[in-house]
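User: Watch each token:
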Amino acid sequence: MTDLKKLKTDILEDGIIDDEEVKTLRDAIYEDGVVDREEIDLLVSLRNEAKETCQAFSDLFFTAMKEHVLADGEIDEDEVKLLDAAIYADGVVDDDEKQLLKDLKTGAKSACPAFDALCEKCLG
């Protein structure tokens, strides 16, 4: 089992997340074949704290988030809180975040009313 706190410290050492670090991160996150909440929290934290990230990190972030949220096919209140915090961390809803919401809306078997409200707020 990978020490996620140490991994975070190592990755953020220079403030930049590069392709090589994304490979290490991907291996750690998918080590057990499941993206759990602790791993999602790590990705959100890295995304918020890094000065700069590469496209590979963005791809990993959104893929892992989608897999985590849709793991049981339902989007619940806790997952909406996670999404809201991740999306609004920088105060701006970007195109990738909008696409994530659209993908989640399409992929979910069911979603709580809070998810619909978040989509309305972000997508219009």
Q: What stands out?
A: The mean pLDDT is 96. The chain has seven helices and four strands. The beta strands are 16-17, 52-53, 74-75, 110-111. The first strand starts at residue 16 and ends at 17.
